[in-house]
Amino acid sequence: MHASTKTATSWTLDQVPFADVDSAQVRAQEDLFYLIAAASFVEIAADLYTDNLIRYFDGDDEIGAWLESAWRPEEVRHGHVLRDYLCHVWPEFDWQQAYSAFYADYSKLCTVEQFEASRSLEMVARCMVETGTATFYQALAALATEPVLAGIATRIRADEIGHYKYFYRFFLVYNAKEAPGRLRILGAIKRRMLEARNDDAKCALWHAFIVREAAPNKSKFNLLRAQLGQKVRRHYPLPMATKMLLKPLDLPDSVAHLLHGPMARLAARLML
Ligand SMILES: [Fe+2]
Ligand SMILES: [Fe+2]
Asked: What is the CATH number of the domain that holds 167?
């Protein structure tokens, strides 16, 4: 069944019907536990990242206001909803303990993170991150057999696409001013996909794993990551990812078509 047909009711992320969750059904799926936990950590930690981003776009009041009044609360809400779902289904998991340890590590990664050299390229990087989240939640919605979880994933996906559109609109504004050219834009896309951000998901997963597992070790962890990657890949919307990744390059259709294969392979790196 497609995710949208599983979630016909009209609740929002502020009023998730947790009482309707069939916990026993979800508890059997350990993979979901890890995907939800890792996503909840990274989403809530966006709070820290927002301050850096607002500072980077200092003087652009429209972006600053949107980041503060829409982006930050929406990302944090995603994290809180996922946390609440996780704690509802797996009440024995000490979410706060795992999150605190994750945050201690993540805040170090976050301060060393380099922004792109110009605002237009930073907007490209933001579009890439939103592509990663939008496609991840689409995969999660397809993976979830429990309707409330599928509904949460579908609603978060819609927010992430909204973020992408917003950042893309600002990319166009700065692209017109700075005209970085396609090669530099492609460089920003590659950097974002091949470097830094994958570490966030890995770090989040690690902290969920060491609190969850009775006897955690590196080889079990690597096995878990490989399993999760396989699972998500089976439902990963590659055409959607490729389309979103290529959009800032504004290529003629014939050239964009040639890039679909390599971009799809790169897109797979946006996942866990
Ligand atoms: Fe989010
Ligand atoms: Fe987002």
From this structure: 1.10.620.20
- Residue 68 CB contacts under 8 Å (≥ 6 apart), including other chains: 50, 54
Distance CA 269, CA 197 (A): 10
Q: How far is residue 14's CA from residue 163's CA, in Å, rounded to a whole number?
A: 18
Q: What does pTM read for this prediction?
A: 0.91
Q: Examine residue 10 and state whether it is found in any structural domain, yes or no.
A: no
- Which of these, 94, 75, 74, lies nearest to 86 by C-alpha position? 94
Ligand that comes closest to the CA of residue 70 = 2
The reported pLDDT for the residue numbered 69 is 96
Kindly give the distance from the C-alpha atom of residue 126 to the centroid of ligand 1, in angstroms, as a whole number: 12
CB-side neighbour CA atoms (13 Å) of 64: 8
Q: How many domains does the chain have?
A: 1
User: Of the bound ligands, which one is closest to the alpha carbon of residue 39?
Assistant: 1
Nearest ligand to the CA of 165 is 2
Query: Distance between CA 35 and CA 42 in Å, rounded?
Result: 11
Task: Report d(CA 133, CA 127) in Å as an integer.
Answer: 10
Q: Which domain holds residue 215?
A: 26-270
Question: Ligand 2 centre from 152 Cα, in Å?
Answer: 14
Q: Is residue 20 part of a domain?
A: no
pLDDT the model gives residue 234:
87
Ligand that lies nearest to the alpha carbon of residue 153, given by its number in the listed order: 1
- Digit-coded pLDDT (tens) for 198-238: 678 889 999 999 999 989 999 999 999 999 988 888 888 88
Task: Mention every residue, 6+ apart, whose C-beta is less than 8 A from residue 162.
Answer: none
Give a yes or no: residue 229 inside a domain: yes
Q: Is residue 215 one of the residues assigned to a domain?
A: yes
